[in-house]
Design goal:
The protein is α+β, with helices and mostly antiparallel strands. It has 10 helices and 13 strands. The protein has a 5-stranded antiparallel sheet with strand order 2-1-5-4-3. The protein has a 5-stranded mixed sheet with strand order 7-9-10-12-11, with helices on one face. Strands 6-8-13 form a 3-stranded antiparallel sheet. This is histidine kinase.
Length: about 350
């Protein structure tokens, strides 16, 4: 059987598109065919470059026996680099001649794929846990406005029968505010769900430009409250989803403005400290602060440390920040003191702006 005929049979059997390394070896131990995946694996471009070489040159120590497997081998690339492989041999017969089909698995790629799958599974587990916890808390919080709507609906019906205009207006206002509260909770639930489920679109972002975009989104609030924001940032670039990073910074800034001291404008300081490989972004305010013991609870969904009457809101903003940081692999933390203020820290790897 000619080498050309053997190569033709080889192509018909496995195709060049097969995502595995295949070598066809004759009875003398020489390679008579190789698919594209195997050529790439060993550093060859054209099939003619690998055909005719002894199998032992690419797989030193291999024992090519039909039906056998060689585990723990190292493949040898054309450039001399070694890499771990598993190899299995199968026999093919034609016209009385026997050739071996070597199936080769590059363990570097297998391990990388397994690690990626494990990481993805762990991320999905964390996402599901956060969503389950959020949905539970949200369902509890939703009961309050829904209960009020039901109660004051009955009161309004009685007031209508009595033609009590004042009571009708009061019941209507309570029901309206309760409905708005319920709607806000549902919208926050959807927003949180999108944050933890949407695919990240990572890109290189200039840190200063990204933070200025977050400030621009809050420009009206900053102007109305006369908030003072100081920025001192190095010239660095980070890898992040632009929309989510801006949402993270925007939520922390909005939180600082919201929890300012009564009668005083918010004072916010945005700084960053870097070393060779990482950066710590610090957003500090001089607001009302909180007890240090609540530093972890503040990132829980729908957790509010202060009165909802004085500081209305759903308590989802910082939970979203935590979810964004977790998805990027960043570390988000906070330090605070009552009547002194709070400082949020975001630790993340960086890359040069160039």
């Amino acid at each position: 059987m000619s080498e050309a005929a053997t190569a033709d049979d080889w192509r018909r059997l496995v195709f060049d598109e097969t995502v595995a390394g295949f070598l066809l070896v004759d009875q003398l131990g020489k390679i008579v065919g190789a698919n594209a995946w195997a050529r790439r694996m060993f550093g060859f471009v054209a099939e003619a470059e690998i055909v005719g070489l002894p199998l032992s040159l690419l797989l030193p120590g291999a024992s090519p026996v039909a039906g056998g497997s060689d585990l723990g081998l190292q493949g040898l690339r054309r450039d001399g680099a070694r890499f771990p492989v598993d190899t299995h041999f199968s026999s093919l017969a034609r016209d009385g001649a026997t050739i071996l089909l070597a199936t080769i698995v590059d363990l570097r790629e297998t391990n990388a794929e397994e690690a990626a799958l494990i990481a993805r599974a762990e991320e999905l587990e964390r996402v599901n846990e956060r969503l389950a916890r959020f949905a539970f808390v949200a369902s509890q919080d939703l009961q309050e406005p829904l209960r009020k709507i039901a109660v004051f609906g009955d009161l309004m019906e009685e007031a209508i029968l009595r033609r009590d205009t004042d009571e009708i207006l009061r019941a209507n206002e309570v029901m309206r505010l309760s409905a708005l509260r319920a709607r806000a909770l549902v919208q926050d639930l959807l927003s949180f769900s999108r944050i933890v489920n949407d695919e990240l679109e990572l890109a290189s972002l200039d840190l200063r430009a990204a933070i200025e975009l977050a400030l621009a989104a809050l420009s009206q609030t900053i102007a109305e409250t006369r908030a003072q924001v100081e920025i001192d940032l190095p010239d660095v670039a980070i890898e992040a989803d632009a929309t989510q990073f801006q949402r993270l910074v925007q939520n922390i800034l909005a939180n600082a403005i919201k929890y300012r001291k009564p009668g005083l404008p918010a004072t916010i300081d945005v700084r960053a400290f870097r070393d060779e490989n990482s950066l710590c972004l610090a957003i500090a305010d001089e607001g009302i602060g909180f007890e240090a013991q609540y530093a972890h609870k503040i990132f829980e969904p729908l957790k509010q440390l202060h009165s909802k009457v004085d500081y209305p809101g759903s308590g989802v903003g910082l939970a979203i920040c935590k979810a964004i940081a977790d998805r990027h692999g960043w570390r988000l933390s906070v330090e605070a003191q009552p009547d002194v203020g709070a400082t949020f820290f975001i630790a993340l790897p960086l890359r040069d702006a160039s």
